[in-house]
Write a structure and sequence with these properties.
2 domains, Rossmann fold, alpha/beta, single chain
């Protein structure tokens, strides 16, 4: 066990729960929480992952691999685009979280699970996260928030545990790449996912492709913009994005920033 008092507090908190289902996306926070829950509760933990058109397939693949390697029971829940968010409303995150976690609660209950956990950390309430209200309304438990564990500490503990996600960049659902009020279409989500996966494979880890119809607005680390627009990279990106279906390919000079459509 990690010697840090906060980590010990987290393990003690988890041990007090009879059994748990962890809402598992494969991201930094939920991976750390899931592994900690496994340490505390052994076989009394299950990972539940949502597969929906607006969640990147490669994230789900990584979630599956981690559970297989860790020997954690894992279930994937198929979910279509909820009717409430088909036009990407401004309160999409709240509506989506309400739908997703209501579904997770039902699946957990049908498997005899008493508590559902999520990976909200103690830094999250200071950010623009309307989905947190849905979690509170549904009674979802957020152990990292309760025990005061920050994002930086999640990464440090994850590194000490040897988790591959310790330095993984934040990755939100694909709906955040579309302007509010735009109809959500499967083909558009697929195009965004393909574009971002291409850039990730090219070496740009912290990346967003904001989609404006036939225009792609790429956000990346400001320090990487010069590299992206010179040499071989720019030709590869333009060629790949044209093949994917974008007519105009642009780079946002402000760089990557979370929730840029929330302005």
């Amino acid at each position: 066990m990690i010697a840090n008092p906060k980590y010990k507090k987290l393990i003690a908190f988890l041990k007090d729960l009879e059994n748990v289902a962890v809402a598992f996306s494969g991201g930094v926070d939920s991976t750390f929480l899931l592994v900690a829950a496994k340490e505390a509760l052994h076989d009394r933990v299950i990972a539940l992952t949502i597969r929906a058109p607006y969640i990147a397939n490669w994230e789900i693949d990584e979630a599956v691999d981690l559970c297989n390697e860790s020997g954690i029971r894992h279930m994937i829940i198929e979910l279509p685009i909820p009717e409430e968010i088909k036009n990407n409303p401004a309160d999409r995150c709240y509506l989506c979280k309400k739908k997703i976690f209501s579904t997770i609660l039902k699946k957990a209950g049908s498997n005899g699970i008493t508590h559902v956990l999520d990976g909200t950390n103690s830094d999250d309430p200071s950010d623009h996260r309307p989905g947190l209200r849905a979690l509170k309304e549904l009674g979802i438990i957020s152990p990292l928030l309760t025990t005061g564990i920050t994002k930086e500490e999640v990464r440090e503990f994850s590194k000490q545990l040897g988790l591959p996600t310790w330095d993984k960049p934040a990755y939100a659902c694909l709906l955040t790449r579309l302007p509010h009020g735009v109809e959500v279409k499967q083909e558009e989500l697929t195009r965004i996912e393909q574009a971002e996966k291409f850039l990730i494979d090219l070496g740009y880890r912290a990346i967003r492709v904001r989609s404006h119809s036939n225009l792609a607005r790429i956000e990346t680390d400001p320090g990487l913009i010069a590299e992206m627009v010179t040499g071989d990279s720019v030709n590869k990106i333009v060629s790949a994005f044209r093949e994917i279906g974008y007519e105009y390919i642009t780079i946002d000079l402000e760089g990557y920033r979370s929730g840029s459509f929330n302005v």
